[in-house]
């Protein structure tokens, strides 16, 4: 029960962070904010999927692929932002 509540809270926090980055992207049109927004929406989706499949299946490769995609988006966003400065 506690795990599901914490997982839901993390999902909501990731979703809200995604909304904030989306708002910043709409104002500035900076691609860094767009990529961060997508990454946090992916992390929110990962928590939602984890809630549906249960805690017994967490080591599922599908869950780790969603997390990997989100972290790769963040790394690419930082790399892309630093590459544009040069």
Describe it for me?
The structure is a single chain. This protein is mainly alpha-helical and 86 residues long. It has one domain (2-85). It is built from 3 helices and no strands. The termini are far apart. The model has no long low-confidence stretch (mean pLDDT 89).
Looking at this protein, list some descriptive labels.
about 90 residues; mainly alpha; about 85% helix
Shape: elongated
> Helicity, in percent?
over 70%
Class based on secondary structure composition and strand pairing: mainly alpha
Largest sheet composition: none
Mean pLDDT: 89
Helical segment count: 3
Radius of gyration, whole Å? 14 Å
Order of helices and strands: HHH
Q: How many strand segments?
A: 0
Number of domains: 1
Spans of at least 5 consecutive residues with low confidence: none
N→C terminal distance: 50 Å
Short summary:
By secondary structure, this protein is an all-alpha fold.
How are the SSEs placed, and which strands pair?
Layout: H1 2-28, H2 31-53, H3 61-85
Helix pairs in contact: 1-2, 2-3
């Amino acid at each position: 029960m506690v795990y599901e509540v914490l997982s839901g809270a993390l999902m909501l926090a990731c979703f809200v962070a995604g909304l904030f980055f989306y708002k910043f992207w709409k104002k500035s049109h900076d691609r860094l904010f767009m990529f961060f927004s997508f990454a946090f929406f992916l992390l929110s989706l990962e928590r939602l999927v984890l809630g549906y499949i249960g805690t017994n299946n967490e080591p599922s490769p599908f869950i780790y692929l969603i997390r990997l995609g989100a972290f790769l988006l963040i790394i690419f966003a930082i790399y892309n932002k630093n590459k544009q400065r040069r």
